[in-house]
Amino acid sequence: MDFKVLLADDEPAMRLVLRKIVEKTDGFSVVGEAEDGEEAVELAASLLPDVVFLDIEMPKLTGIDAARAIAEQAPNAAMIMATAHAQYMPEAFEVYAADYLIKPFKVERVQQTLSKLRVQFEKRAANAAAGRRKLLLRNHDGMILVDVGDIIYIERQEGVTEIHTTDGVYTTSDGLNRLWEKLDPSLFMRSHRSYIINTAAVKMIYPFGRWTYLVKFKIGEGDALITREKFEELQAVLEN
Fold first, then answer.
1. What's the start-to-end Cα distance of the chain, in Å?
2. DSSP code at position 141
3. Which of 16-20, 89-93, 111-115 has the highest mean pLDDT?
4. pLDDT greater at residue 98 or residue 42
5. Using an 8 Å Cβ cutoff, are 161 and 175 in contact?
6. Would you say residue 40 has pLDDT above 80?
7. Is 87 exposed, middle or buried (0-12, 13-18, 19+ CB in 10 A)?
8. At what angle do helices 37-47 and 63-73 cross, to 10 degrees?
9. For 82-101, what is each residue's pLDDT tens digit?
10. pLDDT in tens, 170-191
11. What is the mean pLDDT of residues 22-33?
12. Which of 30, 107, 112, 142 is 20 to 30 A from 219, comparing alpha carbons?
């Protein structure tokens, strides 16, 4: 299945150019075209595109304002801003634009951006699939099934393993090595000998001693440790 692309530009010729580029790029197809910002917002709400090309200087609603509105309708859509003027770049990245194209742009430049987005989308889909899996935990009361996607981090202290999730903390007699074998390394990281973390749940990282860092998460008050080596590995993961 191709990823859906919405084109928004008040110039028909530019929409045609973009359509041809998208059609020549594997994994993407154009599902709609808009000639002004308001139409772009309306189409995004109904089509829920994966990618939106937005001209910044459009009638009725600018590309920047349209991007803000579209983010509420299709929060996972990647916005690609296009304009002949570079001065809008800071505003474009304020709305978390995936890329900023200066007209006239080369075909290869657009295809490169789309190829990077395809990799991100495929990784996101794989992580979502992994998150729907169940993890079977053993404790003194019996067995517990936990949604893998709900796990924030796992901690091993004094012979007890705690699984911190979005809906509570579960304990198990299973060690980290056993649990690590059941987890997807594209979603989780063995950050420290006593911790496994969900990389998508990381919010902030602070220095903590000479060789370790402290990891704070988007949900909950708990924290985990990560070694300097694993911190550098996590940086590479998050930047790609």
1. 23
2. T
3. 16-20
4. 42
5. yes
6. yes
7. exposed
8. 20
9. 887 666 556 555 555 677 88
10. 998 888 998 998 888 888 999 9
11. 93
12. 142
- d(CA 126, CA 81) in angstroms, rounded, equals 27
Token output for 33: 């075209």
Residue the block writes with tokens 């609603």: 61
How many Cα atoms are found within 13 Å in the side-chain-facing hemisphere of 212?
13
pLDDT of residue 73: 82
Report the C-alpha gap between 120 and 3 in whole angstroms.
Answer: 12
Please report, as a single letter, which amino acid is at residue 20.
K
3-state secondary structure of 185: coil
Query: How do strand 134-139 and strand 142-147 relate by DSSP bridges?
Result: antiparallel
Domain boundaries in the chain? 3-129, 134-239
CATH class of 134-239: mainly beta
* pLDDT (average), residues 139-163: 86
- The tokens for 179 are 């649990």
DSSP-assigned states of every residue in 44-93:
HHHH--SEEEEESS-SSS-HHHHHHHHHHH-TTPEEEEEES-GGGHHHHH
- Average pLDDT in the 45-58 region? 92
Pick the CATH number of 3-129 from 3.30.930.10, 3.40.50.2300, 3.20.20.70, 3.40.1280.10: 3.40.50.2300
